[in-house]
Amino acid sequence: MFGSLFQSRSPDPARVPKGQRLTNGFPIMTYGDTPKIKPQDWQLRVWGLATEKTFTWEDFMAMPQTEFTADFHCVTTWSKLDVQWKGVKVTDFLKYIEVDPQAVHLMEHCYGGYTTNIAMEDFVREENFFAHTLFDQPLPIDNGGPMRLVVPHLYAWKSAKWLNGLEFLDKMQLGFWERNGYHHRGEPFAEERYSSF
Q1: In angstroms, rounded to a whole number, what is the distance separating the alpha carbons of residues 176 and 58?
Q2: In the chain, what is the greatest distance between 2 CA atoms, to the nearest angstrom?
Q3: Degrees, nearest 5: CA angle 165-140-124
Q4: In the record, which residues are listed under signal peptide (predicted)?
C-alpha cells in the first residue's frame, strides 16, 4: 500500500527534513467535518490589532496574482516537493490593511472553527501566500479550498485550510493543535513537531 503513496528515496535529500518521506500524491489530513464554502460566499475578516476589515473573493481576485512553486511538509511525516500554487502574496495583501506595530503574533481562523497561531515574523515572509489554485486547478475543498494560507517554511498545519480570519495579537496565543500538544512554531528542519510546554 505505502509503495504507491511514498517514494523510496528523495532526489534531493537536502530538501527533505529528517523523519519525512516523499509522497507521490497529496494526502488529505483533516480534523472534523470538511467545510464546503463557495468562492462567492467566502470572506476573510481582519481584526484585533489591525483596522477591522472584511475581504470578499472578488477583493482577493483584484489583488496582484502570483504563481508559486514550494515544498510542503506535513507533521504526519510526508513531504511533497515542487507543489505548484497560485494566489496572493502575504506581503502584497499587507498593503491593503493597517496593522498596529504592537502586533507580534496572529491567530488564523477558519471555517469550521479551526485555529492555528503564527508569529508575525513567520507570517510576513516573502514566500508566504494565500492560495486559491493548486496545479492549475481551483484549490479542491479537501485541500482547503476555496482559500488557504501557505507557509512553506513551517509544517503544513500552519498553512490553515478554509481560512476566513486573521486576528492580530500583542502576544502568542495557542491555536487548536498547539493546545493539543503540537509545537507553537513548527519548523520542519528543526523537527518542531510537539510542544515542550
Answers
A1: 29
A2: 50
A3: 40
A4: none
Contact assessment for residue 147 and residue 44, using Cβ atoms and an 8 Å cutoff? yes
> What's phi and psi for 186, nearest 5 deg?
85, 55
Give the single-character DSSP code of 133: E
Q: Are 164 and 109 in contact (CB under 8 A)?
A: yes
**What's the CA angle centered on 158, arms 154 and 161, to 5 degrees?**
135
| Of 61, 65, 81, the residue nearest 73 (C-alpha) | 81
- Quick: pLDDT tens for 64-99: 999 999 999 999 999 999 999 999 999 999 999 999
Measured CA to CA, the distance from residue 116 to residue 157 in angstroms comes to 8
DSSP letters along 69-101, please? EEEEE-TTSEEEEEEEEEEEEHHHHGGGS-B-T
pTM of the model: 0.90
Over residues 5-24, the pLDDT tens digits come to: 545 455 677 899 999 999 98
| Residues 110 and 163 sit within 8 Å (Cβ to Cβ) | yes
CB of 84 within 8 A of CB of 134? yes
